[in-house]
Design goal:
Blueprint: E1 14-15, H1 18-27, E2 31-37, E3 40-46, E4 48-51, E5 54-60, H2 64-71, E6 74-86, E7 95-110, H3 113-127, H4 136-141, E8 142-157
Antiparallel strand pairs: 1-8, 2-3, 2-6, 4-5, 5-8, 6-7, 7-8
Length: about 160
């Protein structure tokens, strides 16, 4: 995985340590997945799991998101945590305190039931303690999206 597409303008806010970046990912509850629908952007919030440079996303097997990703598998995923509004007496001095990660990658559709189970375990461990079990019917009805991260950057503001 290449670390960054371009250098961050505000170097003092950049998170460069991979362990810190992964800590932000682990604290995040919802990621936002951006894709391109023709010439228009499209963003959806999603539940996810992360392991070793890979994001796993749980999805229905059909819908706009799947249609878009079948045509163009490139995505940008944004994750943020610890968001706090920092107020000020002057309107233009308001700010936000947060930690975030932006990752670029390509989606692969996972069909193999055993790989789906493994991916679901990763997703579920992000939100709860296991063990987990999944019926064959449930696995058949869902799609697992695997995002192989090509680049990611972290930022801490405030």
């Amino acid at each position: 995985m290449n670390r960054a597409i371009r250098s961050m303008r505000r170097k003092e806010k950049e998170i460069t340590d991979i362990k810190e970046i992964e800590s932000v990912i682990q604290k995040t509850e919802i990621c936002h997945v951006a894709m391109v629908d023709g010439d228009r952007p499209y963003v959806v919030p999603m539940c996810f799991g992360y392991e070793a440079g890979v994001l796993f996303l749980h999805s229905a097997k059909a819908g706009r998101k799947i249609d878009i990703l079948q045509k163009n598998a490139n995505v940008c995923v944004e994750l943020e945590t610890d968001g706090v509004l920092v107020k000020n007496e002057k309107a233009c001095r308001f700010s936000m305190r947060y930690s975030s990660v932006v990752a670029f990658g390509r989606v692969r559709f996972i069909d193999d039931p055993d790989v789906k189970r493994h991916a679901l375990d990763i997703i579920m461990r992000h939100y709860a303690d296991g063990p987990f079990s999944y019926s064959d019917e449930a696995l058949e009805r869902m799609m697992i999206l695997r995002v192989d991260i090509e680049n990611m950057t972290g930022k801490r503001s405030g």
